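Before relying on records like the one below, remember that each one covers exactly one chain. Contacts with other chains, cofactors or solvent are not represented anywhere in the record.
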Amino acid sequence: MLIDLFSGDKKKMRSVGMNFNSSKISGSLFIQNKDPIYHLMSDPGVEVLDMKMALNKYHSLKKYYWKLIDPKQDEYTGQVFNDFHQGYFIRSKPGQKVELPVQACLFIAREKFSQNIHNIIIAEEGSELNIVTGCLTADYIKEALHIGITEMYVKKGAKLTFTMVHNWGEKIKVRPRTATQVEKNGIFLSNYICIKPVADLQMSPTCYLNGEGSVGRYNSLLYSYPNSSIDVGTKVFLEAEKARAEVVTKAICSGGEIVIRGYIKGSASKIKSHLDCKGLITGRGGRMRAIPELEANMPDLDMTHEAAIGKISAEQLEYLEARGISEKESLSLITKGFLDITSMNLPSGLDHQLIDYLETL
C-alpha cells in the first residue's frame, strides 16, 4: 500500500507528477518493481487495470498486444517479450470526456533490478483522455534497468494527452519503447520531461498518423549531466491526407553526451509538419548533437525543420547581473526560462508541481 512507502519515496513520486489526493484524479495505478501496490478507478468513463489482469479479462486485447512494436526490434523488446513482469492498461470509453487525469507510476525499489513493463492505452472513438505517468527509482537504488513497452491507440475523433516525467538516478539505464497509432481526426499530444541525472537513456517514440486529419504533437525537455548519455529521437509517419505533426525538443547539456534526433516522413497530400530542435550548452566537457531529418515522396505537402545549438549569451548574463542578480542565480533563471513548460498544456495542478520540480535544477 502507498501508506507503507517511505516519505522520501512519496516526495520523489510527487516530483514526477503523482498526486496522492484521490479527488484530483480519475484513476491510478502504482507498480513497484513488478507488483501492483495501489489501484483506483473513480470515473466510470475510464478503465485502469494492471496489464496481467487486463489480458485475463479481455481476450480481444490480443489484437493490440505487440501490434505496433515488434518484439524482435532489439534486445530490450525481446527481454520484455520473454520475461514480461507487469504494466498498465488504460482505456477511455467511447464518447467519454475524462476530465481529471489518470496517473500511472512505475517505481523501482530493488537494487540491480530489471523492470520489464508492457503498457497499452486506448482512447476510444470520440473520447478524451489525459494520462500522467511518472517513472523513478527509490533514492537508495544505485543500479537498475527499466524497459517500458507502451502501445497507444487513438481512435476516430479521440484526443489523448500523454505526459511522462522521469526521475531516475546517476547509474540507472532506461529503455522506453513507445508507438502510437492515430485514426481519422484523432489528436495525440505527448509531453516528455527528463531533467534529473540518468546514466543511459535511449528512446525513439514512433507515431503513425494514418487517419485523415489526424494530429501528432511532441514536446520534450531534456537535461544532461556529467557522465550521462542521452539519445532521444522522435519518428512521425504522416500517412493520411491533411495529417499534421509537430515535434519540439529543448535540451540543456551541462556535461555528458546528449543526442536529439527527429525524423518525419510525409506520404500523403496536404500534410503539414514541423521539426524543431533547440540545444543549450552550459558546461565544458559536454557534447550535443542535433539530427533533424525530413523525408517526402509527395509534391503537395509542407514540411519544415529547424535546429540550433548555442550557449547562454553574455548579454543575457550582463543584463541580469546589472540588476543585482548573481551570476549563479542568473544562469539558473535563464535555464528555467529555456525549459518553459507553458506550451505543454499540462493538467491543472501538474503544471505547478513541475514548476517546483524545475526549481530544483
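The helical segments are 7-15, 51-57, 75-82, 314-321, 327-338, 350-359.
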